[in-house]
């Protein structure tokens, strides 16, 4: 009862509001939070109150109850709810009612009343009108962006569905209202904030405020979000009257940023009119947009921001956001200058940068990093996320409050490239989340020469973001103040909810795809409009001059000041000594390459371990170091098997990996292993995460129990993605050289869908950007094709190679190569072709003797059998790599060729072990040279190995081929056919009289 009286009391001030408008007007009635005048209800409630079952209850009280019911049907007793619902069905007052079973002392003694009354006809209309206003409010929140003034060109390239948007004063009829209702007053529902401090407004004013909130230069998409708190937060930011107001100082700062953004492009065009630079003309507001996000984020405590973007506007971002020295940018335009350090370099609009500086708005230090990115546009997205995650990890930022990422996208690429979707899907995964990214889409409304209507199936290029419930703020890029406001909100959203958010800068591209391109060929109407379009700086400066916010003199002085800065930097850029690619590093590793100020030596330390350490790690791998933890019975057998191997001083593939990981963790090296099903291992061999069979989600990671002061071990199953996840791990590895970061493909050929990361980042990264990286790729099967390696005949062969590729045949060699990856004095990507059948092969085991101090990774493993006794009698050396070695030795034993055929394993394919291969060929002077592989001829290592073998012997001996013939598919798919193929090439390898083909 008290709740009813409270509700009624809250409604009473509305009567006063209405009465102020007209003393003779009847009291308003609430329906679903709205108000309508209510005169007929007085006579209705009077007749109702006369009914005997109401025991003389006054009409005023019935009316109060009716108001409460209209506001919220659950606020009144169930009997009143039934009464008023039946009244709306058409029964007359007091026509019929039945006494329900006693309800145990219900309020007001109405528990026995079940009233069926017939209301007057206008009651239903009252309800419908009030609900109509709520529907109208919701319609603006859902579809207001459809009619927002987003396009600076006003040519409407966005293709919405064919149904009209029923919004506006003249469309109220769609909701059952008419123009006579526009001046009637309604209570505002709790799902809107357009009233500010007012709770009631005329319908005309409601519509006006909704249009100001949702239909001007900003269009907001958020109603698909299923979190009420988040929706309410967004409504407040855009619906409250007067939210988009700026101080005089903020407007002047915005103008200064617009001047720098615009005049930078004009300076480049003036100096290098025939050079491609992928300028920002048409979206100059991107610079103040990014600076606003950075300012607000810095204010919220962010200390480091990692950014990624395509080529359009990159030079401007480097100059005016990252604050790269202008002379370093300008000297990139001089084709006569050569870099003063190593590396082939890259085009200027692909380069990155790292810079720590003071944020002048907040007076706080902030580190900004723009990642180098090739022409694959969105390929950098997961790389940025991985580097952000790593920086958060190393500084203990578990909530993303100190480190964050900003990604800048083009509209066509954002909609068209699948890695965008893959990256979004990492955003909330525990081992991949960066706790929110601000995405800024430079929406050119065109992709190179392709119109949106044939470039995407969605209305907006940003629709992909809805998959993770990210709010999307569309904004007209020719309204800098709207851009600034939206970016402030985006930064606050990220700081508040730590989730992704998208800012869609709807702009245009004043020039073609680049400054040399002619866009009129394909978009004549768009570019006719663009030629007539005033620049955004001109429009905004005119606005501020008209407001009196700045004077003409101040404006012109600001332009002259920046022009002078550019001219002075241009003069300095002609100095041939300043061009250093290392100045463009996006991920520096201070202190790593030097010891006490001196460069590290190129000698490698032993990767072996004392036996007691091997035993200790082996027993950790064989145990469950958590009490009362129930593991699967099958897993118990596996762990017992490991313990038996430790007692026998041998290890298999999984235990060898455990030894390498455990020892590095003990030495303080963080290890991160990621990929599909890596926790257990695709082939059920690893079992680095144990699951309690009785308690859901209770796990144990024995590797984190190796030593009290060890580094943390991160092992995490990834989403079913290769492109995005490999990019993520590459970015993680960029952050620090003191971590072993590994990505494992579920199957070796699954890396095909991540080929862009391999070809554009891993393979050429050091040559293009002087950026070393120690990422490790584990590729089961090793059936991949071409190998793209750069070779140099030098002592520092490993250092000078672009990456290292190995195909280990023993657990010990796998153990050593993993440890070498950290202990060597530099970092190179490591590609490991890992086996499947060797994981449990009885012969693929290594003794602890092969892992003790003084032992190393073996680039080549020579034959140590009977052939060593009389090498001059050996008729053939079969070179091979990987698991085919075991099939060759079995076949040799069956044939009795132990003393005439030597089998040599090349464990490191790149850089190629020329020195050790020469020792082997010289040892057997009368032997033919054969390369044997199980892969098809056009898919394995043959084309790579053949010229290197011939070079080693100075072309004095031919190199023969034994293996499968060329094929389009990597495997037959039929086991019987597979075995026939296997036997055929084994016959070829050991046939000392003939070959299928001479090389």
UniProtKB/TrEMBL annotation:
Top EC category: oxidoreductase
Keyword list, A-Z: Calcium, Glycolysis, Isopeptide bond, Magnesium, Metal-binding, Mitochondrion, Nucleus, Oxidoreductase, Thiamine pyrophosphate, Transit peptide, Ubl conjugation
Domain of life, per lineage: Eukaryota
One GO MF term: metal ion binding
Reaction(s) catalysed (UniProt annotation): N(6)-[(R)-lipoyl]-L-lysyl-[protein] + 2-oxoglutarate + H(+) = N(6)-[(R)-S(8)-succinyldihydrolipoyl]-L-lysyl-[protein] + CO2
Alphabetized InterPro entries for the sequence: 2-oxogl_dehyd_N (IPR032106), 2oxoglutarate_DH_E1 (IPR011603), DH_E1 (IPR001017), KGD_C_sf (IPR042179), ODO-1/KGD_C (IPR031717), THDP-binding (IPR029061), Transketolase-like_Pyr-bd (IPR005475)
GO-annotated cellular components: mitochondrial matrix; nucleus; oxoglutarate dehydrogenase complex
SUPFAM superfamilies: Thiamin diphosphate-binding fold (THDP-binding)
EC number: 1.2.4.2
A Pfam family annotated for this UniProt entry: E1_dh
Calcium keyword on record: yes
Location(s), subcellular: Mitochondrion matrix; Nucleus
Function statement: 2-oxoglutarate dehydrogenase (E1-like) component of the 2-oxoglutarate dehydrogenase multienzyme complex (OGDHC) which mediates the decarboxylation of alpha-ketoglutarate in the tricarboxylic acid cycle. The OGDHC complex catalyzes the overall conversion of 2-oxoglutarate to succinyl-CoA and CO(2) while reducing NAD(+) to NADH. The OGDHC complex is mainly active in the mitochondrion. Involved in the inhibition of cell proliferation and in apoptosis.
Name of protein: 2-oxoglutarate dehydrogenase complex component E1
Gene source species: Salmo trutta
Gene: OGDH
């Amino acid at each position: 009862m008290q709740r009813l009286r409270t509700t009624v009391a809250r409604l009473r001030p509305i009567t006063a509001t209405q009465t102020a408008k007209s003393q003779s007007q009847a009291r308003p009635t609430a329906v679903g939070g709205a108000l309508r005048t209510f005169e007929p209800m007085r006579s209705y409630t009077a007749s109702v109150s006369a009914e005997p079952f109401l025991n003389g209850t006054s009409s005023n009280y019935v009316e109060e109850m009716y108001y409460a019911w209209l506001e919220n049907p659950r606020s009144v007793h169930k009997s009143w709810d039934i009464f008023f619902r039946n009244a709306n069905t058409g029964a007359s007052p007091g026509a019929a009612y039945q006494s329900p079973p006693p309800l145990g002392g219900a309020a007001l003694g109405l528990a026995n009343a079940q009233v069926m009354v017939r209301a007057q006809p206008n009651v239903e209309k009252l309800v419908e009108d009030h609900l109509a206003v709520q529907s109208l409010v919701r319609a603006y929140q859902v579809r207001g962006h459809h009619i927002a003034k987003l396009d600076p060109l006003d040519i409407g390239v966005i293709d919405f569905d064919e149904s009209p948007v029923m919004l506006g004063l003249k469309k109220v009829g769609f909701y059952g209202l008419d123009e006579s209702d526009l001046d009637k007053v309604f209570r505002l529902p709790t799902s809107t904030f357009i009233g500010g401090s007012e709770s009631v407004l005329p319908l005309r004013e409601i519509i006006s405020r909704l249009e100001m909130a949702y239909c001007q230069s900003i269009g907001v998409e958020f109603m698909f979000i299923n979190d009420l708190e988040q929706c309410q937060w967004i409504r407040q930011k855009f619906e409250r009257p007067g939210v988009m107001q700026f101080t005089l100082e903020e407007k002047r700062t915005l103008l200064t940023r617009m001047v720098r953004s615009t005049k930078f492009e004009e300076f480049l065009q003036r100096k290098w009119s025939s050079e491609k630079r992928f300028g920002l003309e048409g979206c100059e507001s991107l610079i103040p947009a990014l600076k606003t996000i950075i300012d607000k984020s810095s204010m919220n405590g962010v200390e480091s921001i990692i950014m990624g973007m395509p080529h359009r506007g990159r030079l401007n971002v480097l100059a005016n956001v990252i604050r790269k020295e202008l002379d370093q940018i300008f000297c990139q335009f001089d084709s006569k200058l050569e870099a003063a350090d190593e590396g082939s370099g890259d085009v200027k609009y692909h380069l990155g940068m790292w810079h720590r500086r003071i944020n002048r708005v907040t007076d706080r230090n902030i580190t900004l990093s723009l990642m180098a990115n090739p022409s694959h546009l969105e390929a950098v997205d997961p790389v940025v996320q991985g580097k952000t995650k790593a920086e958060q990890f190393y500084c203990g930022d578990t909530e993303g409050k100190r480190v964050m990422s900003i990604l800048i996208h083009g509209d066509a690429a954002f909609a068209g490239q699948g890695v965008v979707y893959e990256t979004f899907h990492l955003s909330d995964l525990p081992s991949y989340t960066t706790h929110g990214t601000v995405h800024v889409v430079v929406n050119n409304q065109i992709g190179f020469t392709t119109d949106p209507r044939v470039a995407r199936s969605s209305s907006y290029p940003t629709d992909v973001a809805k998959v993770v419930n990210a709010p999307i703020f569309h904004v007209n890029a020719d309204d800098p103040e709207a851009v600034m406001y939206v970016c402030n909100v985006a930064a606050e959203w990220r700081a508040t909810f730590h989730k992704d958010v998208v800012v869609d800068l709807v702009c245009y591209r004043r020039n073609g795809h680049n400054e040399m391109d002619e866009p009129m060929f394909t978009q004549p109407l768009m570019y006719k409009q663009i030629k007539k379009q005033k620049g955004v700086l001109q429009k905004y400066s005119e606005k501020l001059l008209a407001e009196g916010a700045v004077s003409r003199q101040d404006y012109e002085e600001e332009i002259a000041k920046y022009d002078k800065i550019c001219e002075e930097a241009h003069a300095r850029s002609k100095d041939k000594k300043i061009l250093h690619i290392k100045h463009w590093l996006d991920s520096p590793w201070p202190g790593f390459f030097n010891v006490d100020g001196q460069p590290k030596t190129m000698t490698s330390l032993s990767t072996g371990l004392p036996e007691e350490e091997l035993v200790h790690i082996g027993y950790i791998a064989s145990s469950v170091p958590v009490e009362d933890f129930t593991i699967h019975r099958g897993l118990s057998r596996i762990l017992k098997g490991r313990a038996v191997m430790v007692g026998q001083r041998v290890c298999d593939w999984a235990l060898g990996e455990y030894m390498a990981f455990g020892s590095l963790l003990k030495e303080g090296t963080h290890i991160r292993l990621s990929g599909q099903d890596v926790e257990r291992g695709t082939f059920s061999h690893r079992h680095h995460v144990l699951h309690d069979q009785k308690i859901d989600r209770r796990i144990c990671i024995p590797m984190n129990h190796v030593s009290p002061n060890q580094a943390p071990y991160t092992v995490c199953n990834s989403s079913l993605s290769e492109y995005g996840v490999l990019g993520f791990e590459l970015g993680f590895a960029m952050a620090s050289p003191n971590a072993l970061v590994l990505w494992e493909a579920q199957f070796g050929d699954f890396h095909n869908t991540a080929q862009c990361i391999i070809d554009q980042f891993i393979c050429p990264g050091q040559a293009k950007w002087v950026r070393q990286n120690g990422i490790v790729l584990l590729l089961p099967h090793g059936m991949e094709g071409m190998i793209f390696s750069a070779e140099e005949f030098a002592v520092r062969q490993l250092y000078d190679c672009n990456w290292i590729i190995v195909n280990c045949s023993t657990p010990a060699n796998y153990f050593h190569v993993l440890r070498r990856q950290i202990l060597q004095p530099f970092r190179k990507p490591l590609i490991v072709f890992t086996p499947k059948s060797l994981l449990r092969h009885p012969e693929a085991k290594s003794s602890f003797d092969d892992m003790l101090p003084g032992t190393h990774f073996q680039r080549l493993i020579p034959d140590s059998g009977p052939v060593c006794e009389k090498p001059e009698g050996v008729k053939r050396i079969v070179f091979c790599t990987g698991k085919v070695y075991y099939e060759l030795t079995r076949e040799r034993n069956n044939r009795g060729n132990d003393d005439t055929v030597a089998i040599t394993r090349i464990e490191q394919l790149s850089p190629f072990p020329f020195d050790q291969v020469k020792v082997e060929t010289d040892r057997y002077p009368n032997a033919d040279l054969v390369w044997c592989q199980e892969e098809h001829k056009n898919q394995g290592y043959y084309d790579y190995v053949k010229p290197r073998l011939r070079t080693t012997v100075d072309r004095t001996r031919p190199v023969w081929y034994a293996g499968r013939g060329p094929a389009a598919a990597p495997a037959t798919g039929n086991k019987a056919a597979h075995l026939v193929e296997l036997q055929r090439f084994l016959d070829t390898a050991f046939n000392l009289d003939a070959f299928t083909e001479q090389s």
